Amino acid sequence: MSVAEQTVVTAAPPPYVVRVQRPQAQQPTPPTPPFNAQAARRLRTALAMGPEHVAYGMRASFGLPHVTPDLVIAWERGIAAPSTPEVTALAGVLWCSPGELIGAPRTLREHRVARGLAPEDVARAVGLELLAYIRMEEAAQWRGTDRQSAALADVLELSLPDVITVSGRDGRLGELLRSAVTTRWQAYVRPVCKLLPLDRRPVEDVLQEMHTDYQGQMVATLSWGTAVAAADAGEGGRDYLDRIVEHFWSTVERNTG
Fold first, then answer.
1. What's this model's pTM, rounded to 2 decimal places?
2. I want to staple 79 with a disulfide (CB 3.0 to 4.6 A). Which of 36, 64, 74, 195 is the partner?
């Protein structure tokens, strides 16, 4: 066999390029802000607008072609929740601020949306790189310094309870408070003071008062007098523990106001 023939025999055919269509990764749906459905309906009614007028305004003025009267009604009935761009557009149509359409905000992002601010505005105000701030929003946990936290509270008009919530410290605070009211409250003064920017004396007064309130309800459950009263007290005690952080802040406000 000649060299030329060997070349013909051993030459490999040109490779074929096979194009594989990979499925696109599904984009995560961004969380929706807490929506105040009753406020949306009340504002629309006050303007004598029908759902069709609201939907048309959102389509024509804000470029949201998917908004229909049925979707507006679903928002108002609590069946569906609008996204952040939809809340902003709805506020524009109803001549109100986005904050008027949002329920009590809890996360960093919800507070920002309630104030009608862009991420860039908040990042600039607190002295953070935009990407660093966005990461905190996505993690739903504020991690700024004391100075940055003060700036955040100023730009978003946050109370101390709000700052603790957006910092992700509500869970730990609840654990300490439940232990304080069910055992010896004195042992939890220092941990609570370490967690919160509060003086020791107000924390002592609040924990002692809450301990007394809770233990009073628990004593009622041990009463052999009326089983119904004891059951009600027991239910009240469970509700008290479930809402322990709320009780703490209301007691702090009452004692320091």
1. 0.61
2. 74
